[in-house]
Amino acid sequence: MVKKLFKFVALLLFFIFALILFAPKENIYYLLEQNLKKFDIIISHEKLENRKLYLNIQNLDVSVKGIETLTIKEANIVILALYNSIELENIMLSSLAKNYLPVKIDKVDIYYTILNPLKIYAVGHGKFGDARVAIDVLKRKAALVLRPSKIMRMRYRNSLKELKKSKNGEYLYEKSL
Fold first, then answer.
1. Is 98 helix (H, G, I), strand (E, B) or coil?
2. What pLDDT digit, counting tens, does each position of 68-115 carry?
3. Which letter does DSSP use for residue 145 in this model?
4. 177, 140 contact by CB (below 8 A)
5. Bridge partner list, 14
6. Backbone phi, then psi, for 69, in 5-degree steps?
7. Alpha carbon 145 to chain centroid distance?
8. How far apart are CA 161 and CA 153, in angstroms?
9. Which end is more exposed in the chain, N or C (fewer Cβ atoms within 10 Å of the end residue's Cβ)?
10. pLDDT of residue 91
11. Is residue 23 pLDDT above 90, yes or no?
12. pTM of this prediction?
């Protein structure tokens, strides 16, 4: 009985590993890109490289409604069925945003797990400080928690006034989608 259970688990793990290894990562990316076009979000000038366990994308230019919004130096997409993530590095916002917040974002990690299928999480770090975002898909709500840096508190006070300050010094923002 134990041998059969062990064989079953080993075959299941092998199947999952093979599925991850041979998944059409580029096709999934292009499907994501097509879905974003419905919301007038265009990704251009990217260079894709299919690695064994993830998809590496370099030099993405993102435009929203025809306005160039940001440039992402590197992105890694990991699709593991139970846990999926997108890691974005070296993000430069458009110069239009420089009056509201620092334009350099060091890193953003977006992840989704099957253990909590109705939520998408994101964690970001940059000159603005540290931010955590939770998107509730069912309720169609996004919640932001920002721990601002000194630069953000000194230079971008007007932007922070739009957020609700909590007792522990973090700033909160909720939005219905």
1. coil
2. 889 999 999 988 777 889 999 999 998 888 888 899 999 999 999 988
3. E
4. yes
5. none
6. -100, -45
7. 15
8. 10
9. N
10. 95
11. no
12. 0.83
Length of the chain (residues):
177
Residues 141-157 as b or e (16 or more Cβ within 10 Å = b): ebebbbebbeebeeebe
Instruction: For residues 154 and 41, give the distance between their C-alpha atoms in angstroms, rounded to a whole number.
Output: 32
The pLDDT value given to residue 108: 96
Q: Kindly tell me if the per-residue pLDDT of 177 is higher than 90.
A: no
Residue 7: phi, psi to the nearest 5? -60, -45
| AA identity, residue 80 | L
Instruction: Tell me which residue of 166, 164, 97, 161 sits closest to 174, measured CA to CA.
Output: 164
Pairing of strands 129-136, 104-113: unpaired
Do the Cβ atoms of 146 and 133 come closer than 8 Å? no
Secondary structure element (H or E) that encloses residue 91, with its range: strand 83-93
- Tens digit of each residue's pLDDT (9 = 90 or more) over 123-154: 999 999 999 999 999 999 999 999 999 999 89
Distance, in Å, from the CA atom of 18 to the CA atom of 14, rounded to the nearest integer, reads 6
Contacts of 86 (CB under 8 A, 6+ apart): 75, 76, 77, 78, 109, 110, 111
